[in-house]
Specification:
With 552 residues, this protein is an alpha/beta fold. It has helices at 7-29, 94-99, 101-112, 162-171, 276-289, 313-327, 426-443, 449-458, 480-485, 516-545, and strands at 72-74, 120-125, 138-143, 189-194, 200-202, 294-297, 301-304, 331-335, 356-359, 368-373, 389-394, 400-401, 410-411, 413-416, 419-422. The chain contains ten helices and 15 strands. Strands 3-4-2-6-8-10-11 form a seven-stranded parallel beta sheet, with helices on both faces. The two termini are 59 Å apart.
Length: 552
């Protein structure tokens, strides 16, 4: 027998080339060589990573003096008109429907009788106007900007309008079935701390002495809410006719921002009030005095990463404060940050070497940071990416409470300085998560703060990425119903017991059509089958009885 030639020789030149190309292709496409966008987000262990902050230094934790750190003076008057535009009162905001908040609230109400009752959420922001739809559930936490010049208690004047809209997402309660909007935890208590304002700036003519510890820190020279110096905008926004209680008020001629950008407020931004130091003081004070079990911070500080992993003094103070809060059983929720000229997107090749560092989200060991999604369910273009992003929630086309004094309606616009724009940004995704944290705390009071965060992350709608998280939406969009009902592997005691969820049965209408045609059709089919069987039997019998021998 002739020996067979080697395969490569039998293939010839062209065949050999094909084999080489095939082998190369298999090597390139093998699972070991394939790199997906999701896997590219994982820590490569390369040197020079600065996405992880330095170790906590508790020695820099600042005491809460309960006053501003600088003398601030009002440069722009408080919002005085309706920020509602073509709002349909009976329309349910898309974020509520997307998160199935009605089902989540039904679960909590059935188990506890209220939705968020007995839970206090601290809102560290621009202050909160006591809108009627808060009823009497807004409390004074403190004022770190200035003494309110309208006679309100510290923290209960919102010149910017931002804090009221944030608080409305958490705990607004119209108590009117005709109104589609409702807060996530409509029976929760809000404790307001005014810490940031674009309507105030440092008073360069005043002394740095803001008063004795314990006072509210009225800036010297502004004891009576004096008019700003000449040359500054007195603040009455164009068209401000005092139509504060009217839904669908006029825009007033202010130029809208671009729709693809989120809120542009920043801590320590030039010409505004609010520093990292006072933010750290407030967080520390809340935890130390036990004033709230959930903190929402829709305030951020963003800076360019310097590539060394260094940390600034104010950042160190916030890091120590959030660590203290987490250790003292407080759930800390923060907005992940919005892209701006001062805060470029983290779209570099290595996610562990970010271009921008955002505080407090940077301290993900103790903070649940929240990215924003839009109506499509995709990550919003303005939401800052990063390894610290924990979860995501709706952050575009937001409807909340109108912050204007005397208002009894809703708003779908917000104002930063004198510019109005749609309510959108991670600032407004964060309160959705803070509201869910309040519901989980009410439902499971035995859980620690870190366990609450873990439960929210574990039950989120995970992205298709290794480990079920990525740098865009973290562990995914929150799922309030799952956070309240899921049985998790580490659950013990009451949490380990199955929790039946009461759902309204939605059945199709009864079929009123006559069954006669079906009966006739079935009878005809059956008769045909019987006839066929009889025919086959007869044919089989005839063949068996037919003579098989040769003819005689």
């Amino acid at each position: 027998m002739r020996a067979r030639r080697p395969l490569v020789r039998r293939l010839g030149i062209g065949g050999r080339t094909g084999v080489v190309l095939l082998a190369a292709g298999l090597g390139v496409l093998s699972p070991f060589a394939l790199v997906s966008p999701a896997s590219a987000q994982q820590d490569t262990g390369a040197a020079g990573t600065w996405a992880i902050p330095p170790q906590v230094d508790d020695s820099v934790l600042p005491n809460d003096d309960r006053r501003p750190d600088k003398p601030y003076q009002k440069k722009t008057e408080c919002v005085k008109r309706s920020l509602g535009q073509n709002i349909e009162i009976n329309t349910i905001p898309w974020g509520q429907s997307y998160l199935q908040l009605d089902k989540a609230q039904q679960i909590v109400r059935s188990a506890k009788g209220t939705v968020g009752g007995g839970i206090t959420v601290a809102v560290v922001d621009t202050g909160v106007t006591p809108h009627p739809w808060f009823q009497s559930r807004v409390e004074s936490g403190g004022d770190y900007v200035a003494t309110p010049d309208n006679g309100a208690l510290p923290g209960l004047q919102d010149c910017d309008g931002h804090g009221t809209e944030v608080a409305g997402i958490i705990a607004g309660n119209p108590q009117d079935p005709k109104v589609g909007f409702i807060g996530v935890a409509p029976d929760a208590t809000i404790r307001s701390y005014r810490q940031l304002s674009s309507n105030y700036a440092v008073d360069e003519n005043a002394s740095n002495n803001t008063g004795q510890p314990g006072d509210t820190g009225t800036p010297p020279g502004n004891q009576n809410g004096n008019t700003p110096p000449s040359g500054q905008n007195g603040g009455q926004l164009p068209g401000n006719g005092g139509g504060g209680g009217q839904v669908g008020g006029e825009q007033g001629g202010t130029a809208p921002q671009q729709d693809d950008k989120g809120d542009t407020r920043q801590l320590q931004k030039e010409g505004t009030a609010g520093t990292l130091q006072t933010l750290a003081e407030i967080i520390h004070g809340i935890a130390q005095r036990g004033e709230a079990s959930v903190i929402n911070m829709s305030v951020d500080h963003c800076r360019a990463a310097d590539g060394t992993g260094s940390i600034q003094t104010g950042e160190q103070q916030v890091q120590a404060a959030v660590h203290f809060a987490a250790e003292h059983n407080v759930v800390v929720v923060a907005a992940a940050g919005n892209v701006s000229d001062d805060c470029p997107q983290n779209d570099q090749a290595d996610p562990n070497k970010p271009r921008s560092i955002v505080t407090p989200p940077w301290f993900a060991d103790d903070v649940l940071s929240v990215g924003a999604i839009d109506e499509t369910g995709g990550v919003a273009s303005f939401s800052v990416h990063g390894p610290w992003v924990g979860v995501a929630a709706p952050g575009t086309d937001i409807v909340s409470l109108d912050p204007a004094e005397g208002s009894t309606g809703l708003a779908n616009l917000t104002i930063d300085g004198t510019q109005q724009s749609p309510i959108q940004g991670t600032s407004f995704a964060s309160p959705y998560v803070a509201g869910v944290a309040a519901l989980v705390r009410q439902m499971y009071p035995q859980l620690s703060a870190r366990q609450v965060i873990q439960r929210i992350e574990t039950t989120a709608q995970h992205p298709a990425a290794p480990g079920g998280r990525d740098d865009f939406v973290g562990y995914g969009v929150i799922d309030p119903v799952a956070a309240l009902t899921a049985n998790l592997p580490n659950d013990v005691g009451e949490l380990a017991k199955p929790k039946p969820v009461v759902q309204t049965a939605v059945l199709p209408p009864a079929d009123s059509m006559s069954s006669t045609p079906m009966i006739v059709a079935l009878a005809g089919t059956g008769g045909g089958i019987v006839a066929l069987l009889i025919t086959l039997f007869v044919m089989h019998t005839i063949r068996r009885n037919r003579p098989t021998g040769p003819p005689s």
